[in-house]
């Protein structure tokens, strides 16, 4: 490959996708097992082996407490948040508080794993898939996140990319990436497009103006706690209610039973996108604690019942769409096209909502599972190779400000401001002879500081002694194209300045990140060696089987040759050495492989001379 390869990654809640650009066209990259979608699942077998993707998902039922799914819903969040407490009720694995930054982590066998580590394992698997597909090392990537992700969630996603061994070129919003994939190759004369993105764990809606290669987001809104998992949970809860009513016992304490219910719920939901009714059969779901009798669950679920169970979730998404339209200053009739992204948009009730709001059919010219990764791949390619005139103008989804006297929030950058962005404001001291100024950086829409998320803080010190109001401090916010915030504060009289790139209170420290990166690098080297050893052993096995199969036929021809007994003894010794090494590998097999290869080639040549096919 002449050019340095680049990839785009849609790191999803349920599944992830990786794509690249080949001959100017974006293509998805299949996993090494041939699948386009890679389950965003990390598991640990009972012997401690790490499993990622489809193989991890397949063993979830028998190993629920050591199988981690839905990590995207936890990334960048604090352990003590109400959302995390609520989520723990449904997760089979254990959540624990992190280090100094109080982030949520997962505990497996007494080992605490950060969420960026878990997501990093999935990203690493996708990178290795890309390297197998392209045949060269891959490092440069664009990774997508929900448009409504906070600064801390974006930082944690970038950390996950670094842990995976990637150079993260840019973090871009999923709806923007989908719009890019939707617009490229289309003869768009210009217009307004709504990207409705309802995936496994999050919901986003973005309104864009698209014209001549310019993709300008005018408004975005969303909910990082609304997605397909919530629909699955409603079905699973309904099944539990029926089971309890029928058998008088509650299976919720049995993690294996609950994993079976979750899997059955997801399967039934998917089937009801095309069917009116589906059957759910779960034999031997739970053993009665008193009688020891095995209890079964057998029932039917109709599309109508599913819609009754989840209608409020769909209406939640509808209210968010209305808010985004209002922020963009447009009516639904002004939207020219609607692109549906995310697997949950296949649900008929969701599509009905879109038709009702916009008064038109959504576009069918976009793949809901692949569009985000394809758009990310296009953007990565354009960033590295400067091969496109595409221009992405995204917005910040949340307002940003600082806490001021009285506990109020002074907003410097309002939500839906185009990024990159820069804003500043001059504040003054509030006390005589004030020695320092503590600047608390906030994210959120409430005028009350306590009702917003704290992103970080910096302290400007020492200040010159003066009466209150005389010391002027200029605070400046800068948001990069990734949506990452940097903050600086400067005493306008003395020039004293402090600046930080915000690393949220809920993420990894720089030291932790470096330790994890070094450990993962060592793990990857060890894994590569293990794979080489496995490959060599397999090569020895195949050659050995062939040599042992050909030996009886070749024996008489060898003895009749000028080399005679010595040649036969040498060939047999070579096969014997290979057999001994294969049964008990010790040291490098290079010499054994070379001798084995020569022996098999000798056998083949002798037999071919006599018209015998090897």
Q: What report would you give on this structure?
A:
By secondary structure, the chain is an alpha+beta fold. α12 crosses α13 (590-609). The chain folds into 4 domains: 1-186 and 366-388, 2-Layer Sandwich (Nucleotidyltransferase, domain 5), CATH 3.30.420; 228-311, Alpha-Beta Complex (Actin, Chain A, domain 4); 400-502, Substrate Binding Domain Of DNAk, Chain A, domain 1, CATH 2.60.34.10; 514-609. The longest helix has 51 residues, at 510-560. The chain is built from 13 helices and 28 strands. The relative contact order is 0.10. The protein is globular.
Main traits of this protein?
single chain; 614 residues; alpha+beta; Nucleotidyltransferase, domain 5; Actin, Chain A, domain 4; Substrate Binding Domain Of DNAk, Chain A, domain 1; 4 domains; six-stranded mixed sheet; 13 helices; 38% helix; globular
Largest sheet: 6 strands, mixed
CATH class of the largest domain: Alpha Beta
CATH-assigned fold name of the largest domain = Nucleotidyltransferase, domain 5
Terminal residue distance? 37 Å
Helix proportion of residues, in percent? 25-40%
């Amino acid at each position: 490959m002449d050019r340095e390869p680049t990839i785009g990654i849609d790191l999803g809640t349920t599944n992830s996708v990786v794509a690249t650009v080949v001959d100017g066209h974006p293509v998805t990259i299949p996993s090494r097992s041939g699948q386009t979608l890679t389950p965003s699942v990390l598991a640990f077998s009972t012997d401690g082996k790490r499993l990622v993707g489809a193989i991890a998902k397949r063993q979830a039922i028998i190993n629920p407490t050591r199988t981690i799914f839905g990590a995207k819903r936890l990334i960048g969040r604090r352990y003590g948040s109400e959302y995390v407490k609520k989520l723990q009720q449904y997760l089979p694995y254990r959540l624990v508080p992190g280090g100094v930054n109080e982030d949520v982590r997962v505990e497996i066998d007494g080992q605490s794993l950060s969420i960026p580590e878990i997501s990093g394992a999935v990203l690493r698997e996708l990178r290795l898939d890309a390297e197998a597909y392209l045949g060269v090392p891959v490092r440069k990537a664009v990774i997508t996140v929900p448009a409504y992700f906070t600064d801390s969630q974006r930082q944690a996603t970038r950390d996950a990319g670094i842990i995976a061994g990637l150079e993260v070129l840019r973090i871009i919003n999923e709806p923007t990436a989908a719009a890019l994939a939707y617009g490229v190759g289309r003869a768009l004369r210009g217009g307004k497009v709504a990207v409705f993105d309802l995936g496994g764990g999050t919901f986003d809606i973005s309104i864009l103006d698209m014209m001549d290669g310019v993709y300008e987001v005018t408004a975005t809104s969303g909910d990082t706690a609304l997605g397909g998992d919530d629909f699955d949970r409603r079905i699973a809860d309904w099944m539990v209610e029926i089971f309890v009513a029928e058998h008088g016992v509650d299976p919720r304490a049995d993690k294996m039973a609950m994993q079976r219910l979750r899997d059955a719920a997801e399967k039934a939901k998917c089937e009801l996108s095309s069917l009116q009714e589906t059957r759910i059969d779960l034999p031997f779901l739970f053993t009665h604690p008193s009688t020891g009798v095995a209890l079964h669950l057998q029932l039917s679920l109709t599309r109508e019942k599913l819609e009754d169970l989840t209608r409020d979730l769909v209406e939640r998404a509808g209210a968010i769409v209305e808010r985004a339209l209002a922020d963009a200053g447009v009516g639904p009739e002004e939207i020219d096209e609607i692109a549906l992204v995310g697997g949950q948009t296949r649900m008929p009730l969701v599509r009905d909502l879109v038709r009702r709001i916009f008064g038109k059919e959504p576009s069918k010219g976009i793949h809901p599972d692949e569009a985000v990764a394809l758009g990310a791949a296009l953007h990565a390619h354009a960033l590295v190779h400067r091969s496109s005139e595409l221009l992405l103008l995204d917005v910040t989804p949340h307002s940003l400000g600082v806490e001021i006297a009285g506990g109020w929030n002074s907003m410097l950058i309002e939500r839906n401001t185009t990024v990159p962005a820069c804003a500043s404001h001059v504040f003054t001291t509030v006390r005589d002879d004030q020695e320092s100024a503590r600047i608390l950086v906030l994210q959120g829409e409430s005028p009350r500081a306590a009702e917003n998320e704290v992103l970080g803080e910096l302290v400007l010190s020492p200040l010159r002694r003066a009466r209150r109001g005389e010391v002027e401090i200029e605070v400046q916010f800068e948001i990069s194209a990734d949506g990452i915030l940097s903050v600086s504060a400067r005493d306008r009289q003395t020039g004293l300045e402090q600046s930080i790139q915000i690393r949220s209170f809920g993420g990894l420290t720089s030291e932790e990140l470096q330790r994890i990166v070094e450990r993962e690098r060592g793990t990857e080297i060890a894994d590569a060696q293990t794979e080489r050893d496995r490959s060599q052993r397999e090569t020895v096995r195949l050659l050995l089987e062939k040599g042992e199969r050909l030996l009886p036929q070749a024996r008489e021809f060898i003895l009749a040759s000028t080399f005679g007994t010595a040649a036969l003894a040498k060939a047999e010794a070579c096969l014997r050495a290979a057999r001994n090494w294969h049964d008990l590998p010790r040291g490098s097999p290079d010499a054994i492989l070379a001798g084995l290869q020569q022996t098999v080639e000798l056998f083949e040549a002798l037999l071919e001379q006599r018209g015998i096919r090897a």
